[in-house]
Amino acid sequence: MREHDIEPIRGLPGDLPPGEAILWQGTPDAWVFARSALGARWIGGYFALLVGWALVSGTPLGALLTAGFGVLAMGLTYGFALLVARSTVYTITNRRVVLRIGVALSKCINLPLVKLGGADLRGLGAGYGDIALTLQGPSMLGYAMLWPHARPFRLAKPQPMLRALPNAAEAAGILAKATAAIVPVQQRGETTQTVNAPRPALGAREVAA
To answer: Are 200 and 136 within 8 A, CB to CB?
Structure first.
């Protein structure tokens, strides 16, 4: 029995509390993920250049061996992408975004909507896209914890990413509406506090279940 088989709700670490509802769920497309997140095209192009160089240099055996290594590298890349797609579930509720990620060791990362400072949609063609999330205030998220579901090169302040989504614009719209609906509620709750009161940090229980 797999760990995911005992989930009370697919993609979530537990039952939804009263008042919370799932608005959207999705998973990465394996082939788009391999190209956009793992650089499959660059890997294939690199080995193609090596094979071409070997042929020009007059070493057919070297070209054959290089082609074999290239096929192996591409197979590993797409194989890993398939595993990521099968083990990943992104969930948007009316209160949070949940990333169930991890190939070897599964984990759920909960991101309350009130902690989101922004979301950037990057189109990948044919309706596919990535959504990078900006978090407000400090968090306990590390780049290694999120990878490959992290925005590249943002090591100091990692940004979670919903990667290689089909109909990414639809997911982004749902997220925008959910965030807009909950932020005014948070602001009304803050009127009972002093204006300069610091916002609570994103605690460990909110980050990883």
So the answer is: no
